[in-house]
């Protein structure tokens, strides 16, 4: 039931503050602020030398953020593959001790085959999964639930941000297990994660401004999304969201890759969405944005107040989000990207919840 919402996708975007908090509750004891494993699950990261992450589509972008999280907060090196490659690549797994799969449905054919492959190679397997009792939830050694509730819209929204929340809390947990995160840091990080619902709510408030921008986006045939560090996976997720529901061709790039090719596409008709919270990557990203501006590209900058004050680029439009800790930016900045895709699709008159050629769950290869 869509309730008062126009589409399931809109409803699911609006549910994020609440479901993020549910998901966090599975990984953090909210009374003590200590990380924990979800009920009935057992996983100790202290002896894990390397993690292999794998998923499809939006789950893959969540896994990419997951890699940044595990490397930053737990200092565990990670491998990452799209599942359709992992299952056939027959890569030497070397010192990989744990394989983590990310799937909303728990039924995606390539991800399931990858999970089975990992098991056949004697790896411990874990799945970050939204559908309880799904095939992957039954077959993985460890189940890491996202508590996003049923997601009906084909374009994943709340499942994605809950996957990020699960991976962020798990990475902190892993850091604790390995002695990389001490007790005070653990409390500080979980306190920060608990701010996600409030910040998600504030991000939803950008909707009107995004809707205005979407009118222009809807006149375009192509769009570019750029980000660095934690924002690089988001650039790809933002592009995926836009293309799957509005059918506008979009590409997501690491901002530093711009001058290695895509800059050739920039002229005064090219919209460039830049994800640039005022974090350690900010200055570098802004210098890439200057290059876009010099060629007349139409820039939309997603940033915070200090970003807007420190990196004003001629002719760019800013969507200003609240200031937040780095661990939260992928979760919160995903929301304006979802809204941009959503409102652009509405402008285009496409079928938002059931885009052409797509299925909610891809159970064949
Ligand atoms: O159910 P899964 O998370 O395994 O699905 C993976 C992809 O098919 C899915 O994320 C797809 O890319 C979405 N349509 C993205 O919005």
Elements, N to C (H/E): HHEEEHEHEHEHEHHHHEHEEHEHEH
The distinct ligands, each listed once, are: 5-amino-5-deoxy-1-O-phosphono-D-mannitol
- Summarize the amount of helix as a percent range: 40-55%
**Strand portion, in percent?**
15-25%
- Structural category is alpha/beta
Number of helices: 14
Order of strands across the main sheet: 4-3-5-6-7
**N-to-C span:** 31 Å
Strand and helix layout:
Blueprint: H1 8-14, H2 16-27, E1 28-29, E2 34-35, E3 51-55, H3 57-73, E4 78-82, H4 83-89, E5 98-103, H5 109-120, E6 124-129, H6 135-139, E7 142-145, H7 158-177, H8 183-193, H9 196-204, H10 207-217, E8 222-227, H11 232-246, E9 249-254, E10 271-275, H12 282-294, E11 298-304, H13 305-310, E12 317-321, H14 329-348
Parallel strand pairs: 3-4, 3-5, 5-6, 6-7, 8-9, 8-10, 10-11, 11-12
Antiparallel strand pairs: 1-2
This protein binds 5-amino-5-deoxy-1-O-phosphono-D-mannitol (M6R).
Commentary on this structure:
By secondary structure, the chain is of the alpha/beta class. Helices cover 45% and strands 16% of the residues. The protein has helices at residues 8-14, 16-27, 57-73, 83-89, 109-120, 135-139, 158-177, 183-193, 196-204, 207-217, 232-246, 282-294, 305-310, 329-348; strands at 28-29, 34-35, 51-55, 78-82, 98-103, 124-129, 142-145, 222-227, 249-254, 271-275, 298-304, 317-321. The chain has a five-stranded parallel β-sheet, sandwiched between helices. A five-stranded parallel β-sheet has the order 9-8-10-11-12, sandwiched between helices. A two-stranded antiparallel ribbon has the order 1-2. The longest helix has 20 residues, at 158-177. The mean pLDDT is 96. 5-amino-5-deoxy-1-O-phosphono-D-mannitol binds next to helix 3. Residues 56-59, 103-105, 108, 111, 154-156, 244, 358, 361-362 line the site of 5-amino-5-deoxy-1-O-phosphono-D-mannitol.
């Amino acid at each position: 039931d869509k309730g008062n919402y126009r589409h399931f996708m809109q409803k699911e975007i609006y549910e994020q503050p609440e479901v993020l908090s549910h998901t966090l509750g599975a990984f953090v004891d909210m009374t003590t602020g200590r990380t924990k494993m979800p009920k009935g699950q057992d996983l100790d990261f202290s002896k894990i030398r390397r993690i292999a992450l794998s998923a499809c589509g939006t789950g893959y972008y969540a896994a990419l953020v997951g890699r940044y999280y595990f490397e930053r907060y737990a200092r565990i090196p990670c491998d990452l593959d799209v599942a359709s490659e992992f299952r056939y690549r027959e890569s030497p797994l070397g010192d990989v001790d744990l394989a983590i799969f990310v799937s909303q449905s728990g039924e995606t054919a390539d991800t399931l085959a990858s999970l089975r492959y990992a098991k056949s190679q004697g790896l411990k397997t874990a799945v970050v999964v939204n559908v309880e009792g799904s095939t992957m939830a039954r077959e993985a050694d460890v189940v890491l639930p996202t508590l996003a509730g049923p997601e009906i819209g084909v374009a994943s929204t709340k499942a994605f941000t809950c996957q990020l929340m699960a991976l962020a809390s798990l990475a902190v947990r892993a850091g604790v297990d390995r002695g990389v995160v001490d007790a005070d840091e653990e409390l500080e990080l979980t306190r920060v994660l608990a701010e996600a619902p409030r910040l998600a709510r504030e991000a939803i408030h950008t909707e009107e401004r995004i809707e205005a921008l979407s009118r222009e986006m809807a006149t375009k045939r192509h769009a570019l999304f750029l980000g660095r560090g934690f924002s690089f996976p988001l650039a790809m997720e933002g592009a995926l969201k836009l293309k799957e529901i509005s059918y506008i061709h979009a590409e997501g790039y690491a901002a530093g890759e711009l001058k290695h090719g895509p800059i050739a596409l920039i002229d005064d008709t090219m919209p460039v969405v830049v994800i640039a919270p005022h974090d350690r990557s900010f200055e570098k990203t802004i210098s890439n944005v200057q290059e876009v501006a010099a060629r007349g590209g139409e820039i939309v900058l997603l940033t915070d107040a200090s970003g807007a004050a420190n990196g004003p680029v001629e002719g760019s439009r800013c969507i200003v989000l609240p200031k937040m800790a780095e661990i939260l930016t992928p979760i919160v900045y995903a929301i304006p990207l979802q809204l941009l895709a959503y409102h652009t699709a509405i402008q285009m008159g496409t079928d938002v919840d059931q885009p052409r050629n797509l299925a909610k769950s891809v159970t064949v290869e």
